[in-house]
Design goal:
The protein is built from 17 helices and 11 strands. The protein is of the alpha/beta class and about 375 residues long. It folds into 2 domains: about 300 residues, Rossmann fold, CATH 3.40.50; about 45 residues, no CATH class. The strands form 3 sheets. A 5-stranded parallel sheet has the order 2-1-7-8-9. It has a 4-stranded parallel sheet with strand order 4-3-5-6, with helices on both faces. Strands 10-11 form a two-stranded antiparallel sheet. Strand 10 and strand 11 form a beta hairpin. Helix 1 runs parallel beside helix 12 and helix 7 runs parallel beside helix 8. The longest helix has 17 residues. The two termini are about 35 Å apart.
């Protein structure tokens, strides 16, 4: 299939949707593992262009959404300490912990600051030597190089008041965990294009072969997504299981070696708890021994693991691709972006936020999809 230069061409989108409908001969389920892709699919109504036999499952592609509650509680504990400035990206500030979120702690007097880059936190630590400056580092492989660079700069500048509360995770082990879940119905994957710009996609090839599941590296525009779905469906119909690259304008098989060297210079793998998925081996990034002094848990104590409190929120099932947001009994009522019960409703990459903002839902029945309002 020819890759198009115009990524929002309605006629090209309609032609691709027609081509997809002409390919499909049985029901299939494809999961996109990227919150930005989820938002584009819902915002542009791409899922509604597709034949009924093709289901799209929304996976754990939002790093804010998979950050577990005990880690958020630790961030809150640190933020409330005197002489501490806790910094994080904006999405993280309103994700609820066990009792409140960071924005509420800020309203109560905690020094919580929104930042746009880990390097900004290094500058803050240098400008405020009398304070402990902590970066709540949330993200997939895309943000890990910048966090690694911040740690290297902090070391170079001799900053004793800079530390990182790490919530960095990597995607391939999460996909493996999903495919190991009993009774899963995932037959193809759209891989996150921005993650693969850093990592490449060579590591996914073994997964595709082992589980006999096709995977397509996909961009974020409507045509990107429709092409990614077409390529994935084409493989499924032929019984193939390879990794293809739709996002050729940005992604190479080996990724960005410079960014990868930064990551593995500073980090090593460890088991990590994912909200909704449980503990996944070798899925988290922790600081290597020579950088461990920059680890917030070395200064403020370890994260206290505890079971998630009971709630009507079904974010875990949504992150596993088992349910859609509108199937949650709290969706749009007890859970809204201004009063979220779970991270997928408040994050700009969360599936619940996508449906809430772009579908303008009336309350749907539990067994049918949402209806668009005028």
């Amino acid at each position: 299939m020819k890759f198009l230069d115009e990524y929002r061409d309605p006629k090209a989108a309609a032609a691709l949707a027609q081509a997809i409908a002409g390919l499909i001969n049985r029901p299939w389920t494809i999961m996109e593992v990227c919150g930005s892709q989820t938002h584009a699919l819902v915002k542009y109504g791409i899922d509604q262009l597709l034949p009924a036999e093709l289901s799209l499952a929304h996976g754990p592609g939002c790093p804010v959404c998979v950050t577990p509650i005990p880690l958020i509680d630790k961030a809150l504990e640190i933020a409330r300490l005197p002489g501490v400035m806790l910094c994080s990206f904006g999405d993280m500030l309103r994700v609820p912990g066990s009792e409140e979120h960071l924005l509420a702690a800020k309203a109560g007097g905690a020094r919580v600051r929104l930042v746009y880059s880990p390097l900004e936190v290094v500058r803050l630590a240098q400008a405020h030597p009398q304070e402990e400056v902590v970066f709540f580092a949330v993200g997939f492989e895309t943000t890990a190089p910048a966090t690694a660079l911040a740690i290297l700069q902090a070391q170079q500048r001799g900053l004793a008041n800079f530390s990182v509360l790490g919530a960095q995770v990597i995607l391939p082990p999460a996909i493996r965990a999903l495919l190991n879940f009993p009774g899963h119905n995932l037959q193809g994957f759209l891989l996150a294009g921005h993650v693969c710009t850093v990592t490449g996609y060579a590591d996914y090839e073994a997964l595709a072969q082992r589980y006999q599941v096709p995977m397509v590296v996909t961009g974020f525009e409507p045509i990107d997504l429709l092409q990614g779905i077409y390529l994935c469906l084409q493989q499924m119909e032929k019984g193939q299981a390879q990794v293809e690259n739709q996002y050729v304008r940005a992604v190479q098989r080996q990724g960005n070696p410079t960014a990868q060297r930064l990551i593995w210079q500073v980090f090593e793998l460890e088991a990590r708890q994912w909200r909704g998925l449980g503990e996944i081996p070798a899925s988290g990034l922790r600081l290597k021994d020579q950088y461990r002094r920059f680890e917030a848990q070395q200064r403020f104590g370890p994260v206290q693991t505890s079971p998630e409190p009971p709630t009507v929120c079904i974010s875990g099932q949504i992150l596993q691709g088992l349910k859609k947001p509108w199937q949650c009994p709290a969706f749009g009522g007890g859970c809204t972006p201004s009063h979220p019960l779970g991270a997928p409703m408040v994050s700009s990459e969360g599936a619940c936020a996508a449906y809430y903002h772009y579908r303008r839902l009336a309350a749907p029945s539990r067994d049918q999809g949402p209806e668009l309002k005028d």
